[in-house]
Design brief:
By secondary structure, the chain is mainly α. It has five helices and no strands. The chain is 79% helix and 0% strand. The longest helix has 26 residues.
Length: 125
């Protein structure tokens, strides 16, 4: 597995989820089992905007040389996705939300970043 694959998959998946949160938070609130009030809709749209930013960062970085700056972007993505995974697990376990799908998907991205950053890192140029 290469960092290009991890960054491409992250860009596509997180971009799709971010776009969904930005344009249709009420539908996602129903999927998650949360009442869609105005505050939830607003926060869902804010989260969607942030996810789209992360997706664009991953997408643009996928073809960049493996410099220290690119590695820093990947570490930032790893931290964001690890925190997101933890929050999704909390939602599933403590709050009873329908977040097991996100837990699985986000865990795969976290494992991908751990792999390309620490287990089989590519040489930095």
């Amino acid at each position: 597995m290469s960092s290009k694959i991890v960054l491409t998959a992250t860009g596509v998946w997180i971009g799709l989820i971010g776009a969904a949160w930005l344009v249709m938070p009420a539908i996602l609130s129903n999927f998650w089992g949360v009442a869609p009030d105005d505050n939830f809709t607003y926060m869902g749209q804010r989260d969607g905007a942030l996810m789209l930013g992360l997706a664009v960062t991953a997408w643009v970085a996928r073809n960049a040389p493996n410099t220290q700056a690119r590695r820093a972007l990947m570490i930032g993505s790893l931290v964001a996705l690890a925190l997101l995974t933890g929050l999704s697990a909390y939602g599933a376990l403590a709050l009873g939300l329908n977040t097991w799908g996100p837990v699985v998907a986000e865990s795969l991205f976290v494992m991908g970043f751990v792999w390309v950053l620490f287990i089989k890192p590519e040489p930095v140029v």
